[in-house]
Specification:
Shape: globular
Strand content: 25-35%
Number of helices: 6
Helix content: 25-40%
Oligomer: single chain
Mean pLDDT: 88
Strand order of the largest sheet: 1-2-3-4-5-7-6
Radius of gyration: 15 Å
Order of helices and strands: EHHHEEEHEHEEH
């Protein structure tokens, strides 16, 4: 598996990735029923400046064909030092730590660009993503309104994050 920056040439692969997600996964990611990403959304998610907004993909190669199996973004919110974080992983690649790796890498990119906090909204029923945020080791604040958990994650490394990272590396 390879982790790399997303780029405009990934539009079709990102469209295919989204289409391959189960109905439940799309619902948990977008808080509603969605069948496809619009051309505008594909542009917004692949044409990034890697400063205020950035995205990474986890790629698996099969018979020389690349497949996106995970994608994570942070997108500019207009609030200095803040960005919105979102992630999804292919159904058949869940529980392998891909979301955690993508979050850690994006936090590093964000830190170098002056982004100190990620905002993320997670449905209360999305146990996998709640666990990612719980186990990552970043300092977090959270609130719960109407079944949606709002997280604010500090992107700075801390001793707690280093210990959690080390534990995952040994695990």
């Amino acid at each position: 598996m390879t982790i790399r920056a997303i780029n405009p040439s990934d539009r079709e692969a990102l469209r295919e990735h989204f289409a391959s997600l189960s109905v439940e996964s799309r619902y948990l990611r977008f808080f509603g029923a969605r069948n496809l990403l619009t051309p505008q959304e594909l542009s917004r998610l692949t044409e990034l400046d890697f400063a205020g907004s950035a995205g990474l993909v986890a790629i698996e190669s099969d018979d020389g064909r690349e497949r996106i199996v995970g994608v994570a973004h942070y997108l500019d919110t207009g609030v200095p030092g803040h960005a919105e974080f979102a992630c999804d992983v292919a159904d058949d690649y869940r529980d392998l730590g891909i979301a955690t790796v993508l979050l850690e890498h994006l936090a590093g990119i964000a830190r170098t660009n002056g982004i100190t906090e990620f905002d993320a909204d997670v449905m209360g029923s999305n146990r996998r993503m709640l666990k990612v945020f719980s186990d990552i080791g970043f300092e977090t604040r959270q609130s719960n309104v109407a079944g949606v958990v709002h997280f604010i994650l500090k992107t700075c490394e801390s001793e707690k994050h280093r210990r959690a990272h080390e534990k995952r590396s040994l695990g």
